[in-house]
Amino acid sequence: MKRPKLKKASKRMTCHKRYKIQKKVREHHRKLRKEAKKRGHKKPRKDPGVPNSAPFKEALLREAELRKQRLEELKQQQKLDRQKEQEKKRKLETNPGVKASNLEPVKEESGQCKAKNKTKSGKKNPKKLYCQELKKVIEASDIVLEVLDARDPLGCRCPQVEEAIIQSGQKKLVLLLNKSDLVPKENLENWLNYLKKELPTVVFRASTNLRDKGKIIKHLKLRKRAPIRNEGCVGKEGLWKLLKSFQETYGKAIQVGVIGFPNVGKSSIINSLKQERICNVGVSMGLTRCMQVVTLDKQITIIDSPSCIVSPLNSTSTLALRSPASTEVVKPVEAASAILSQADARQVVLKFTVPDFKNPLEFFTLLAQRRGLHQRGGSPNVEGAAKLMWSEWTGASLGYYRHPPTSWTPSPHFNKGIMTEMKEGLNLEELEKNNAHSIHSIRGPRLASSILFQSSGLTNGIIEEMDIPEELPKQKKKQQGEEEDHLDLNSDQESADEEADEESLATVLEEESWALPEESQADESALSYISDKMTEEEDDAYDFSTDYV
């Protein structure tokens, strides 16, 4: 009986055998090199490029670079089109009952709206949907927080929305001064004294250092959830106590609606109260497109709303500051000029560190030179500088302020009876203490380093769908073109599309090579001249060699 192997066989071999294998390998490599020499296999020749002596060299190189860029852009566009088609097919597979004509191209959304709202948004004007959502928030709320930018509180108030809240029934309206760290403390106190005569007012500063909800869930797998430090938030305790006191007097669970114009910080306030980044926030205006319900407590629910729609009858500066659609209607230079005309020129010069200017165009030129915004040829990019100033003015970093009116007059839609009703059931004494504590803890800018701004007063808004102006025919055509994207559902068609893409690339190359501009035609003539010259030199050399022989 054969003994079983207890361990693996050794890989050792004799030196004679190892040297023999190495010799065979060397001989095999030598043989391969000889065959490659006989075949004449050489390295591919490097493109020498256009010689320096050739005329119009720069134009030739520029034309080649442009052609290369066009090809890359075309390839990228075709790749995106194929991805869209695949997404449409996947959507059709998941919903087999839905017709292909009713499908829309898949877009990234904030995850706030339901599927019904997505289908409606393609057919209706989005502004009308915003009006519907805003009405829903007002109807569902027991107490409404109107968020105001502390830099221009009066310009952030909408009389039409406030009138709708008063007419909707027994609802409380509270003003909330957000971004209070961007104005001097003296100015903030003056505005608080002015606004609290009419309505209860809360001083607030939303937090900006909150983590995303998804990131927190990932951390839960590794360790226990730790409470998030909300260091940047100011005024949270005062607002929370105000809502709690109202809930106790109300006797049941309450719903709190948050309304306001774009970019005043509605979603940031909800995130600060929840201590999580639940609502989508960003620098661009109008990110919230539908109502979003967030539960803060068993007794308190807060509702985020889309922005109030600004009436197009307002001034140019108001449209530039309050409306996200103004980027399409108003030109950047016009909008920034309107904003600049209402600001103190001396303080603008100190803030943006530019020399004195006579008109807005000169200011944008100086700002472009200061920030390094240049066009081709070295000329300053005036439009880019106007966009930069516009974005800084509507963002949450630039500090400016306006003085409250010297004499207090109530709004036309308010009277003494309404103002007393709005203050009933709220602990105003405790609110004053909390506001004083918030102002003391805020580190506001100095009065000398801020820009004085002259606002045009209350901003008129639109709350009824009938008052919204119809879209321009060009915008309608664009939307119809986006909605009526056709679907190809065969997998064979996809491969055919790829082949067609390759053919189109080839045709583009041919068209570009034949249909050249005047510069490229001159370049071709120069190249033909060079080639003729080289052939003449070769013929002369050949005649010389025959004569010598």
TrEMBL record:
Residues 1-58, 70-125, 466-549 are annotated as: Disordered. The keyword RNA-binding does not apply. Its main location: nucleus. Keywords: Acetylation, Coiled coil, GTP-binding, Isopeptide bond, Nucleotide-binding, Nucleus, Phosphoprotein, Ubl conjugation. PROSITE patterns: G_CP. CDD domains: Nucleostemin_like (cd04178). Residues 131-311 form the CP-type G domain. Residues 70-93 have a biased composition (Basic and acidic residues). It comes from the Eukaryota. Residues 494-513 have a biased composition (Acidic residues). One of its GO terms (cellular component) is nucleolus. Residues 1-45, 115-125 have a biased composition (Basic residues). InterPro entries: G_CP_dom, Gnl3_N_dom, GTP-bd, P-loop_NTPase, TRAFAC_YlqF/YawG_RiboMat. It holds the Pfam family GN3L_Grn1. It is found in: Nucleus, Nucleolus. GO terms for molecular function: GTP binding. May be required to maintain the proliferative capacity of stem cells. Stabilizes MDM2 by preventing its ubiquitination, and hence proteasomal degradation. PANTHER family: GTP-BINDING PROTEIN-RELATED, GUANINE NUCLEOTIDE-BINDING PROTEIN-LIKE 3. This is Guanine nucleotide-binding protein-like 3.
